[in-house]
Design goal:
The protein has 144 residues and is mostly helical. It has eight helices and no strands.
Length: 144
């Protein structure tokens, strides 16, 4: 991803503020150009909006497109989000192996939520062979 200009930094900051303030149409207008230029944080937030229908009609294709694009740029929260999409079969066909793949990438970056989720997947044997030692290792990494 290329470095953002000062104007783009301001648009990103304003878009995130609008998103967090639940002003979704404004957030969309500010974040869309950044997402189209490859910014993973903007892509992630557009994915959430499309997935949940925040300020727009639910759009599963858009949700998966933006979430995958951000996840493929090693954006940990997007990897976590994509993992949940696969685990829950939300916007994509349920696939526990894909869920494990994305949770592991986020967990290896230190995202505690992914570490706990991975621990649970290993504990239950979903998407991976059941392995209680591996489950405990991920729980420990998350601080449990």
């Amino acid at each position: 991803m290329k470095e953002l200009s000062a104007d783009d930094e301001l648009s990103l900051s304003s878009g995130i503020s609008a998103f967090e303030g639940k002003h979704f149409p404004i957030a969309y207008d500010l974040l869309l150009p950044l997402a189209e230029n490859g910014h993973p944080d903007a892509q992630y937030r557009l994915a959430i909006m499309a997935q949940a229908g925040l300020g727009m009609v639910v759009n599963k294709n858009s949700a998966i497109k933006w979430m995958r694009s951000a996840a493929e740029q090693s954006f940990a929260v997007a990897q976590h989000g994509l993992g949940f999409m696969y685990m829950d079969g939300d916007c994509v066909e349920q696939d526990y192996q894909q869920a494990v793949h994305w949770f592991k990438l986020a967990a290896e970056q230190g995202l505690a939520g992914s570490q706990v989720t991975l621990g649970n997947l290993y504990k239950e044997g979903q998407g991976v062979e059941q392995n209680l030692q591996e489950a405990e290792r991920w729980f420990a990494m998350a601080g449990f």
